[in-house]
Structure formats: structure tokens, C-alpha cells
Amino acid sequence: MKDIEEIEPTNIAKALGINHSRYIAKLNNPEEFKFKHIQGLANLLNIDIQIIIDVIKKELAQVKKKAR
After folding, report:
1. In sequence order, what are the residues at sequence separation of 6 or more whose Cβ sits closer than 8 angstroms to the Cβ of residue 1?
2. From CA 9, how far away is CA 65, in angstroms rounded?
3. What percent of the chain has pLDDT over 70?
4. Residue 6 pLDDT greater than 80, yes or no
5. Which of 5, 14, 35, 53 is the most exposed place for a label (fewest CB within 10 A)?
């Protein structure tokens, strides 16, 4: 998700209806994204929503492994 940070973060945050710092915080902790934000992000990036969901799931699994 952090790779997305480089793609016009201020404009994406504004389009999602959240402020820039909150958007960056959500990219660092993607489990905090609401579904409407994930859907909006998929629409803005013109990608299938499942791709974003899969990336979030993968990142969460990695965090879980590190916590063990």
C-alpha cells in the first residue's frame, strides 16, 4: 500500500474525503481503511477492488508473522 503513497497523495486523499495525514496513516495501517475508501481508491486508480483487498490481506498476514 505504501507504493500508492507516491501517486498524488494529496489529490487521492481529497477525492476520498479524508485529509492527507489521515490518508498516509491508513496507507501505513491499511486495516484502518473503510470499505468505501478501498472502493474509491480502486475507482481512482482504475483497478479491480479485489487487487487492493488482496494487497491489504497480504500486508496484514506479514504483520501477523512478524508479531510471532
Report:
1. 27, 28, 30, 55, 56, 59
2. 29
3. 100
4. no
5. 35
